[in-house]
Predict the structure.
Amino acid sequence: MKNYLTAVFLCLGILSLSAQNIRFVKQGGTGTGIGSFANASGDLQAMMNQLSNIGGEVWVATGTYAPMRLANNYTVATGTSISPDNAFVLRPNVQVYGGFAGNEGVTEFYRRNPNTNPTILSGGVQPMRIVGSIIYPPVIAYHVVISAGEVGNAVLDGFTIQGGNAYKTGSYNVNGYSINRNTGGGICLFGSSPTLKHLKIMYNTASNNGGGIYAYMSNSAITNVLIKNNSASESSGGGLYSIGYDNTQILTNVEISNNYAAYGGGIAVIEMSLTLINNTIAGNNASIRGSGMYIDNYFYGTDIVKIRNSIIYGNIGSALKTYGINVTNCNYSLIEGLTAAGTNNNLAGSTNPLFVNVSSNDYSLSLSSPCIGKGWNSYNTTATDLAGNQRIRGYNIDLGAYESSNTTKSLSDRINNNYENILDEESSKIELSVYPNPINSNERINISLGNYYNPVTVGVYSLEGKLIHSKAYEGGDFKLDIPDLAPGMYLIHVQTQEGENFTRKIIVNK
C-alpha cells in the first residue's frame, strides 16, 4: 500500500499514548501486555477489557487471531474453549490497531503497516480436534467482531476480518442487546458506532442480513475499507446491510465488490440516511433485486441517500443493478443505467469506467479512464485513497475508491469544465517558509506561503505521529494559533484546497 506510512503519519493524527495506556498483543503471547511487544499478551479481548472506559490503545502484531471468549460473557477467561458463540467484542473508548510487525517501541506507531503486516481476525480457523474417540469438527464463529451499545471513541483499524458464518437461528445477549446468530458474519454493529478504518472484510457469510457488515442503529464512519467476497444468501446486503431509523452512516473510499445476496448484493440500505463518498461498487450479484445497491426507504424517502464521487458499475446477474436510488441526489458520479451526462455533473450511466482488470477483480482506474478528474474535491476530505495513494492529483479528485496516477488529464479536465478558482501556473506554486527555525518555546511559529492566498489546512505533528494542532488559515503569511510547544522536533504539514501537501521539520528549543 503505497504511501501508507506517510498518510498515517501526517494526515490521520492517530495518537500514540504513553506506555501505560497501550496494551500489546502478539500471536502466542504469554505476557501481561504491558510495556512492550516483548511482554505481549495473546488474549486480545482481555487487553480490550483492561482499557474499557478509561481509554487507550491495543497494538496487535501480524498474525491470525480467533475469538476465544463467549460474546455474551467476554470478561470471563475461558482458556481454549471453542464455541461458535465466541466473538471479539469492542469496548468503550478503546482503539484497536493491527498492522504491527511486533517489534515496535511505544513511540513507533508510524512504523505500522497493515499491508505488509497482515493482522487477521478470523472466525473460521479452528481445526478439527480428536479427543480420545470423539471427533470435534471445525468450529466457525457466527460473528467475528461485535460492537453493541455505546462505545464512545472506539476504533477498529488495520485488520482483515474473515471467516464469520452467521447461519444459526436464535440469539444471545451482548451488553443488553439481542444479537441474532444469522446476521453480520464479519462485523455486527448493534446500537453502536465505532470508527472503522483500513479494514479488509472478506469471505464472511450470513443466512439473513449483512454477510460482511450488519449495522443496526449505527452512525459508524467507515473509511478506506475493502468489503469483498461476502454473502447474505437468503436475504439482504451481501457486503453491507444498514438499517437505521434516523441514523446516518458515511462511507468514504470504500470498495464493495464481488458480494452476493438476494437483495442488494453489494449494499442494502433500509430506512436510514447514508452518504457514499468515493465508493466503488462493482462485480456484485443479487438473485432478486439490486445487484449493486438496494435501497428501501419507504418511510424516510430516497432523498436521504446521497452518492458523491462514486462509481456503481459492472454489477452482474439478472437482477436490476440498482434499486431505489433517487438520481437527483447523485453528484459527480457514474451509476450504470441511471445517471445522465452533465446532470449534477454526473457521467452518463452507459460510460465504461475502464477499470484496470475486471477479470482479476482490480477495480482501480486505468490511465485512460473517463472517471479521472471528474470528482469534486470538497466532498472527500481524506488525504489518501483506499490503496494509500495521495487522494488528489493535479486539480480534480477522481471518481471511485482509487486515485489514478494520471495527473495531466485531471488538470485539463478542470480547465475544460471551467471549474471555479483556477489558479495560474505561477500563483499555484507555494513557496512554503516556516520561521524562525530553530525556535524558542516562547516564540510563535510564522508561516509564509509566498503568493498563495487561498485557504489552507495546517497540522502540527510530533515525530510519534500525534496531532497537536489542526486549523484552517486564510493563506499568505500568518502565525500559528497554537499554545507554547514543549522542546523537541515537530512536523508542520500544510494542505491546500487543491490537495497539494507540503511538510517542513521544525526544532523547538527551551
About this structure: The longest strand covers residues 248-257. Residues 1-17, 410-428 have pLDDT under 50 and may be disordered. The longest helix spans residues 407-416.
